Amino acid sequence: MASVLQRCSFFRRLFLQSALCVMLLLASPLNAADSLNVFVSIAPQQYFVKRICGNLARISVMVQPGANPAIYEPKPKQMAALAKTDVYFATGVPFEDMWLRKISTINPRMVVVHCEEGVARIAMARRLPGAGLDHGQQQTTASEHSRIMDPHIWLSPSLVMLQARNIFHALLAVDPDHRLEYCNNYRKFIRDLVELDIEIDQILQGRGKKFLVFHPAWGYFARSYGLVQIPIELEGKEPGPVQLSAVTRYAREHQLEVIFVQPQFSWQIAAAIAKSIGGRIVFLDPLAADWYNNLKKAALEISAALR
């Protein structure tokens, strides 16, 4: 109950902010304008931008279904489309490190918005719990600059609120003629995020804490709801024989019988581990386009796996 009250207190401030914005803009005249051409890096961002801009933008997704955002390379048709793009919404996934500068060179007038701005990153795990590491549940410090930081910031509703605010302010800046629509949509989106966050918190109440994943995509989700993800991959690297043995032993000791895998990565190793512990694999897609329902589904699947 305390966690729900704390969430409500935090989210109420966001409601008041967005409501004040709408009140200030009620008298603002709207002018007709062409739709914005927008690119986002991953499919969940398309959902976020769509919720705020409605039909006022044509939204294209860079990383195509089934592709890995860590190593993705834009297709020639995408590069051609980027030359006509008004806004690019980045989110901090690895492929952007190489390609954002090249994309900006192609289209210098394009506005690049870093949706991850203001989000405190956590470090990805290096070894299993009990081996001297916190599994990436703490925020990074200056002494940890060499650590690989977790990019999956879109898997926590509270962090999506920060990203939504960045999207919202960017849209106001590039398209002030439609600020009233953006304000109204932003307020509704925040309301839905609050409801989703509370619902997921209730789904996971009274359950176990640890769940087993192959690729460590669910660190922010776990931190938001008091859980711990146990990854088979460490810092995105496939496990060697020693690590596989340690994971198998750990899963047996803690009665972890479900391994969550995602379609963007090979799951044969996970299937072999599941067989050896008498468990099973379950697919969760952190890059699903239907972000809202997908996150709720993930909560239900993880809840069912917790003991």
Short description:
By secondary structure, this protein is an alpha/beta fold.
Overview of this structure, please?
By secondary structure, this protein is α/β, with parallel strands linked by helices. The chain is 46% helix and 11% strand. The protein has ten helices and eight strands. The chain has helices at residues 2-25, 43-53, 76-82, 95-106, 157-174, 179-204, 219-224, 241-253, 268-276, 291-305; strands at residues 36-40, 57-61, 87-90, 111-114, 210-213, 228-231, 258-261, 280-283. The chain has a four-stranded parallel sheet, with helices on both faces. The protein has a four-stranded parallel sheet with strand order 6-5-7-8, with helices on both faces. α1 (2-25) packs antiparallel against α6 (179-204), α2 crosses α6 and α5 (157-174) packs antiparallel against α6 (179-204). The protein is globular and about 60 Å long.
